[in-house]
Amino acid sequence: MLSPIYQERMEQIEKMLPLFQQHTALFFASDFYALEACSVLRDMGFRIPEDISVTGFDDLLYARLAKPRLTTMHQSIEKKGEMAVMALLSLINQEERQEWILPVQLIERESVKRIKP
Questions:
Q1: What angle do CA 104, 112, 108 make, to 5 degrees?
Q2: Whole-model pTM?
Q3: Sign of the C-alpha dihedral, residues 63, 58, 9, 21?
Q4: Which of helix, strand or coil describes residue 104?
Q5: Among 47, 49, 37, 51, which residue's Cα sits nearest to residue 8?
Q6: What is the pLDDT of residue 2?
């Protein structure tokens, strides 16, 4: 039996199928959502990356364990936490507003199909 949340995701993706068929890749704001989408898409008969490429963001451990392994953007969770604390302290101390930039890195794995020009 499917969970209500999983069933809801399947229904959302079914509604977006015409849109998916017009594109070659999907990008998700987190690895969790990307991996969930991969599961739903496979259940619907999609092959990843042959039919559609999927990418995430975070570089969670599960991105490396998934089949296919998930292409993602790596970010340092520790650095993100440090920056968040520093930003919060700046606000509390009413210091001048600062711009915070967290470096990220593309981690290429198996969930993206290479398209030859």
A1: 35
A2: 0.78
A3: negative
A4: strand
A5: 37
A6: 62
